[in-house]
């Protein structure tokens, strides 16, 4: 009789999303007393859509306000959350509608963002990783521009 080998793979993000792949391979019988046959098998290709990753989520931004004693318009924000990726230097952060001048991956739960000049209060902070986005509404307020009231 031949041998049936079942190959299975299950991938999970640990948060409910999982993908399973299973296939059976039938190998021919080896006659009694015959030399053993070595099977060398190479599997190539990909399974599109088999893996689902959770979207990034932003829980907090520090500082939440443009510090009053920082000169210039650029401030480095630290973004805290989850699902920023095991290592994904392609992640992009933005404050309001303006992309950060520099976004840096620190860990799966921390990224930094160097802001560009901006105005406004309670701006949303967004992180985009591998085509998925996480948003924290009202997370950052730019320092108001000075107003001359008298000369």
Please characterize this protein's 3D structure.
The model has no long low-confidence stretch (mean pLDDT 77). The protein has no helices and 10 strands. With 151 residues, the chain is mainly β. Strands 3-4-8-7 form a 4-stranded antiparallel β-sheet, with no helix packed on it. The chain has a 4-stranded antiparallel β-sheet with strand order 6-5-9-10, with no helix packed on it. The radius of gyration is 26 Å and the shape is rod-shaped. Helices cover 0% and strands 44% of the residues. The protein starts with a strand and ends in an 11-residue tail after the last strand.
Span between N and C termini?
A: 99 Å
Number of helices: 0
Instruction: Report the sheet with the most strands, covering strand number, pairing sense and barrel closure.
Output: 4 strands, antiparallel
Structural class: mainly beta
The helicity comes to under 10%
How would you describe the shape? rod-shaped
Q: Give me the Rg, rounded.
A: 26 Å
Unreliable residue runs: none
Averaged pLDDT, please?
77
The H/E string reads EEEEEEEEEE
How many strand elements?
Answer: 10
Give the percentage of residues in beta strands. 35-45%
Output the strand order for the largest sheet: 3-4-8-7
